[in-house]
Amino acid sequence: MNTATVSSQTSVSERAKAVAAALILGFVLVYTVGFAASANVHNAAHDARHGLAFPCH
Fold first, then answer.
1. C-alpha 54: how far from its chain's center?
2. How far is the C-alpha of 37 from the C-alpha of 39, rounded, in Å?
3. Are 42 and 36 in contact (CB under 8 A)?
4. What are the sequence ranges of the domains in the chain?
5. How far apart are CA 20 and CA 39, in angstroms?
6. pLDDT the model gives residue 47
7. How far apart are CA 42 and CA 44, in angstroms?
8. Which candidate among 13, 17, 30, 33 keeps its CA 20 to 30 Å from the CA of 41?
9. From CA 21, how far away is CA 47, in angstroms rounded?
10. How far is the C-alpha of 25 from the C-alpha of 32, rounded, in Å?
11. What is the DSSP string of the chain?
12. Residue 49 has pLDDT above 90, yes or no
């Protein structure tokens, strides 16, 4: 039986880029959906903002 070890080394800058991209995408999604015409989608984003302690009114 032959097993190979896969070593994944990511630099700090790559991790920082990934974290920054995820945060930006998350903020864009929460705030974009907050302006959606659908009341259910808007209310879900509104509740998410309250849950994350963002002021919204």
1. 15
2. 6
3. yes
4. 31-57
5. 30
6. 80
7. 5
8. 17
9. 23
10. 10
11. ----PPP----HHHHHHHHHHHHHHHHHHHHHHHT-S-HHHHHHHHHHHHHTT----
12. no
pTM: 0.50
Q: Tokens representing 25?
A: 């995408």
Distance CA(9)–CA(53), nearest Å, equals 35
Say which amino acid occupies 11.
S
Give tens-digit pLDDT for 7-18: 567 788 899 999
Distances (CA, A) of 22 to 1, 2, 5, 42, 44: 39, 37, 28, 21, 20
Residue 26's identity, in one-letter code, is G
